[in-house]
Structure formats: C-alpha cells, structure tokens
Design goal:
Shape: globular
Structural class: alpha/beta
Number of helices: 7
Helix content: 40-55%
Strand order of the largest sheet: 2-7-1-8-9
CATH architecture: 3-Layer(aba) Sandwich
Number of domains: 1
CATH topology: Rossmann fold
Radius of gyration: 16 Å
Length: about 180
Amino acid sequence: MVLAGPTAVGKGTVADYVREHHPEVWLSVSATTRRPRPGEVEGQHYHFVDDVEFDRLLAQEDLLEWAVVHGRARYGTPRRPVELALEQGRPALLEIDLQGARQVREAMPEALFVFLEPPSWEVLVDRLVGRGTESPEEREVRLATARTELACVDEFDRSIVNDDVARAAEELVHLMVDPSHQKEA
C-alpha cells in the first residue's frame, strides 16, 4: 500500500500509529538528504544520508522511487526491503510523496494507492505552522506544493480524511488486510 498526501497532512503521524499498534504491518523507511527534525530517529523515521550516498543508491538502482521534494531535499524508497517484505507476505506500507507514488504506480501497478486528506485547508495550514519546524519561506513553498498535491486526489484508489489519527490509521490498516474493500470501482 502506498500512502501519500500533502505536506503536514499527518502521513508520518498516521504511519507512527500503525507502527505502534500494528506490528504485523511492515513500514518502509525512506532515505532522505534533509536534516533530521527534532525527535526523528535514524532508521525509524528516515535513513538520513548525504548527497554522495543518495547518488550511489541511484546509480545502483537501489531505489524503487525517488524525488526532489519542495525543491530542496531528495527522498527515496530503498527497493530491496520492500521486495523482501512482499516476498514474506507481510502487509507493506510506503509513506511517500505524490511524485514517488506516481513512480511506484509505474513499477507496481498492483499496489493500493491511498491519499491522506486534511479535514480542511485551514487545518492543514494550522498543522504546518503549529509544528514550527520550517521557516516562513519554507512554509510558503510547502503550502504551494500542498495546493498542487490536493488537486491530485483522483489519481488514487482511495482517500482517507485525517480528522483523527487513530481512526485514519485503523481505516488504512483495514484496507490493507481486507482485500474486498481495497479498490473502488
């Protein structure tokens, strides 16, 4: 399953809930060239790498998808851990951005693509401002990206409104384990 949505919608928070409450679900850990935010743990939230290491991963085709996000840092999904989880028959969750979701759709069209939506634009803005991890300039870049991303919800098989983290995460897990509810007609 691929989970995508705009910046500050709570993708990481929903994924953290799934990690804590559903150990049967394997969560992909993306590589990124951005610096860690306060509280982020190497290997749990991201693999923090420098540009040289990211270039090596690209050259060796070790990334299932990758993108430059918000015109700054690069993010990518290491390929082999995803393949191993699927080979083991585990429910697998990739929490990625819109660009990455499009690349995964090309590589793995059988995946279920879920878009995480905010309850409203105002809530999304409040979440971004409230986390206090970006400068005013960075917030404006992220909000401009979010406007574009919100317009792409129709590219996804399903959408979930993140009005309550636990509810949204449980709905996501339910979609993963109950194939009869996966793809909408």
